[in-house]
Amino acid sequence: MISTYTVKYLLLVAALISLPKSIHAQPVTSITSPDKSITLTIRNTQTGAVNYQLAYKGKSVIEPSGLGFSLSKPKATLNRFTIVAADTSTTDETWQPVWGETNRIRNHYKELLLTLQDKTDSGIQLRVRFRVFNDGMGFRYEFPPQQALTHFVVADELTQFTLSADHKTFWMPGDYDSNEYLYNTTKLSEVDAVTAADREKDTALKSVIGPKAVQTPLLFKTADGLYISLYEAALLNYPVMHLQLDKKTRTLTAQLVPDAVGNKAYLQTPTQTPWRTILVSDKAADLLTSKLIMNLNESSKIGDSSWIKPQKFVGMWWEMHIGKATWEKAGGKHGANTQNVKKYIDFAAKYGFDGVLVEGWNVGWEDWFGNWKEDVFDFVTPYPDYNLDSLVRYARGKGVRIIMHHETSGSVTNYERRMDAAYQYMVKHDINTLKTGYVGRIIPRGEHHDGQWMINHYQRVAEKTAQYKIMLDSHESAHPTGLHRTYPNWMASEAARGSEFNNAPTLGITPEHTTILPFTRLLGGPMDFTPGLFRFRLNQFDSTRTQQVRTTLAKQLALYVTLYSPLQMVADLPENYEKHVDAFQFIRDVPVDWDDTKILAAEPGDYILMARKEKGKNSWFVGGITDENSRDLSVNLNFLDPGSSYEAVIYRDAADADWDKNPEAYTIERKKVTAKTNLSIHLAKGGGCAIQLIKK
Amino acid sequence: MISTYTVKYLLLVAALISLPKSIHAQPVTSITSPDKSITLTIRNTQTGAVNYQLAYKGKSVIEPSGLGFSLSKPKATLNRFTIVAADTSTTDETWQPVWGETNRIRNHYKELLLTLQDKTDSGIQLRVRFRVFNDGMGFRYEFPPQQALTHFVVADELTQFTLSADHKTFWMPGDYDSNEYLYNTTKLSEVDAVTAADREKDTALKSVIGPKAVQTPLLFKTADGLYISLYEAALLNYPVMHLQLDKKTRTLTAQLVPDAVGNKAYLQTPTQTPWRTILVSDKAADLLTSKLIMNLNESSKIGDSSWIKPQKFVGMWWEMHIGKATWEKAGGKHGANTQNVKKYIDFAAKYGFDGVLVEGWNVGWEDWFGNWKEDVFDFVTPYPDYNLDSLVRYARGKGVRIIMHHETSGSVTNYERRMDAAYQYMVKHDINTLKTGYVGRIIPRGEHHDGQWMINHYQRVAEKTAQYKIMLDSHESAHPTGLHRTYPNWMASEAARGSEFNNAPTLGITPEHTTILPFTRLLGGPMDFTPGLFRFRLNQFDSTRTQQVRTTLAKQLALYVTLYSPLQMVADLPENYEKHVDAFQFIRDVPVDWDDTKILAAEPGDYILMARKEKGKNSWFVGGITDENSRDLSVNLNFLDPGSSYEAVIYRDAADADWDKNPEAYTIERKKVTAKTNLSIHLAKGGGCAIQLIKK
């Protein structure tokens, strides 16, 4: 029997469910981007909710979406507000990065700063700062100093992103510990993260959140031609934001990474969250040149940055992956022995590379993985067959420097105890570049790679290496969010599926993967993808291996242009390069620091064609890549100085090249070109092209 | 309806339940203590269980009790064994501690080493090493290197202690984070840990395990006159062992402290557990002189220990507790200001004390507690009103040294990052004694004060301070287990309810508390109890305070004899001491290092009377204390050199003294005594006496 009470209750529930629709929210305020293409609208509904809405040239980008927080200490739900103030301002400034894809960056936005008062009796005030650029928007929460809030614990962030339609979506499974997935391309409604993650057999550690949780950066292409990216900027003292999808409402809600006891963040006023970013354009190319995320980061904290030098390096690394050598000494195939490292130093010196990365140099690799062991490496004890002192002298004599490797095995408490001694050891040995690694489950046990505690750790490493004038390249760290502006010594990170997965037995690296990365992962900063493989059947030292790199050789060259990193590895073995010295010339010549970047053509998941001008020089370099489809690209050289003549050195797939059947077939041609030239280039399946343009 | 299956099942269950009784286990082997008073019997039952049983002079100490482990990785239950070998041996050696209650310690035991093979197909072997001394037994598990076991994770230790009757029990609630409880004295069957813990309102942090969980050391007095203590020794790389009580079977089972994800210990072969110890005697006094726990620890790891010097110190501490000053600078009552510390240095110099402890010297106290904040103190930044450089010079000129204070606020990750810099800062400032503190919830979040991770931390601090030649006194650390043998620079710890609780508003320190501590907490090592209060109404600076110290002044003197520590605080304010300079003389004279210790009379919870001979001198010091009852003690001086004459300086309660009504009433008398003298001393309620015996 349904009682009167029950009926009343049901009516009330029905009323509540329909509430958001039935209330005619009053627009409170709106601002537009400097060029008026983007409009942000803020509404304060009758219930007190504050929603934001974003439109681009009249098209919906984000439907009205919620803002707010749930705190576990003090216990409070902050999602009903009175708007106390709404202040607007405009900023237009230009700054110079220490290194990068361009030598000047314009930071031009309109800002709306909302001051919100919690409608309950908590007395808590917070602010939401919106910045609307011509290519998107960022917003963050700020908690000013106040009586009602000093220390607080975030249970959940209630930020939402509601989409207008069932867009085509480029997504990875949400995961607290790994971002080394392939991208899935489906309709938003078809996201199935657990199934996708289950397909991935080669990831060392997975902490999949659930079937409807996805990672950022998350990329959409709408039916009406918009490219939209959801991400974050300036991720400091806060966990990574993943997103939980409600398929019915097409709403993505922030899913912060929990700590060992389930809390999300421990904060103290005054404080703020990272920026939540929404890039939007009707041209895919605009995402690739967007500086919005860097602009939302603080300017450099490093006063004298003269010691920070973009570089290319070779190294002791891929030979472990393909079974020629091992990291560990036991077993008789130890790669990092003095003689072998000398060979790499000789090779670097001969071909003009700056550094030699040496992995497996230090004691501990016999027992480093899989046991959640805390005391693994001490970072200062070389294996007895690795004579670091003599190698440092030898390298110095040849103008080459050794690059340090600190694999933490996820035991971060151990690393933090030893960081100072480890960096002093580097300085003593004339080593000023460091590759870190975080393979395995994190210690403190219960913490995750993407949690607040680890985010703070990565920052500590960036700051401490800066104190020691050490350049940093972090692997298995959280996704980058433009912090290389603030810490320009933190030059690169992996934080995505990199070239090492070419060796993975199952999914590997698909041909399309490198056409998606620049639209997603690379929005946050340079990636140490480790391109430059020249041999694609990986049975060189182990005839049982059937893995194959799904790329042509010309595409590997192109990646040096299309996947930016100021620390760029030349990843293959010396003997494999010396079989193709003519093609190798491109890798020797391509720079790692640029004055300018032009996107000539781009479509995520399909192809990218871009041109970059060498820093302080008159040379341009063009890189073009395609997915599993062959493609003819038209390369319009109108970015060259008008009236000047250039020599073009064109490295491209041979006519019969094919990533699967004939990956090493390439041709190199030289021709005179001008700004009026239009080159027509054929890319093979999984292929690419690389062009050097030298002003005459 | 009960099916045939059900009936069979019920019969089976009944059979299983009665199994331990119905199987007539075969004794496998037994050994006795060197003096034959203690017999250990090992049985391997038909089910494969290996039980141990302990008897003292024919009386039951431990009934047949189980041994074993549950592992979570590899998944295995190790409690059914084949005994592969049973080896016996005898050791009798004597060693000299760096400092202590006696100058020589005999280590005399018979050993039985069982090698056990798991009866399942795991292939795992382990050993149990039993050592039977004249005053008890220790045993530990050892995991030798083996194919079947390398890295493993302990889910539970299955060690049991089954008692023969419902003994009188001195117990504290089992707690993962605090050992600062009063002892409860009840029958074993009356243990109610949650109710007891709920009565304790003044403990900063409690993580009570459950109603039937108690801490070790756990003390019993049996109806047939035995005193039994259950504890542990050499607690390294393993969590603290608490005990879960099954009242029906009177069985206590090991309850290890879990980590953030619920595991107990991460181990790698070869490894071993701490020793589980059982002290037993028919004389209570024997527990107080037992060296069993120290003997089960490894010998000193510190080669040159000449820099380790027992000492007495005054300090900036109690005045914060009673409201004269504050740790924090904000508020205008900052204690650790240069002028005030100078006063303490003057006081120490005037009365001949070695050190001045200064708490609240460093920036951070405004916001140090209760927020699980990670970056609190940096341990190298003094408040601006504390001129450390000038104070160090000033102190040195007066032959006094400042004692450093590192309050971690439980943020151990932060402390570990900064330890090296903090110790270098100490060395630079001529400071070689350190008091650490761990008040508050531990970071790494989810870890506990008593968990394996923290046990490893305490060891790291002991080892690192030793490298810097720093003497260590740790507060809020896990209970001590004789590690001061191995790390003699780790001279004292708190790890129990200390004198500071005299200021607590509710339960405080009961008069009996100090008569229990030597039978329990102090079995593991010296305690920084901070005795020496001379003013007992605590309204000196805050007239609203009603707390009162429940002791007489003479008892405070006696504690310097009965509560051993080589780092002994002289805890009250200079102005309070200077009102009783005659009584203060005892504290000036009493040493902190001894050649010998004699227990003249003792009963846990009632009274303790002991005599100690000063290290390298002919003077003896006697301390006697009582609980809430007045008592007449007979002090037989037959420990003095026969035929020699001594001057006795007797500090005792005045005839009308009473902890409650007249605590500061004492008399001092001097008389000639010899080894034939028998002094009769009256102790007031909550009173005590202290006697100095100077050879003439």
Automatic annotation (TrEMBL), chains A, B:
One of its GO terms (molecular function) is hydrolase activity. InterPro entries: Aldolase_TIM (IPR013785), GH (IPR017853), GH-type_carb-bd (IPR014718), GH97_C (IPR029483), GH97_catalytic (IPR019563), GH97_N (IPR029486), Glycosyl_hydrolase_97 (IPR052720). Residues 593-693 form the Glycosyl-hydrolase 97 C-terminal oligomerisation domain. It comes from the Bacteria. The keyword rRNA-binding does not apply. Residues 317-496 form the Glycosyl-hydrolase 97 catalytic domain. Keywords: Calcium, Hydrolase, Signal. Its cofactor is Ca(2+). Residues 31-298 form the Glycosyl-hydrolase 97 N-terminal domain. Residues 1-25 form the signal peptide. Monomer. This is Glycoside hydrolase family 97 protein. It comes from Spirosoma liriopis.
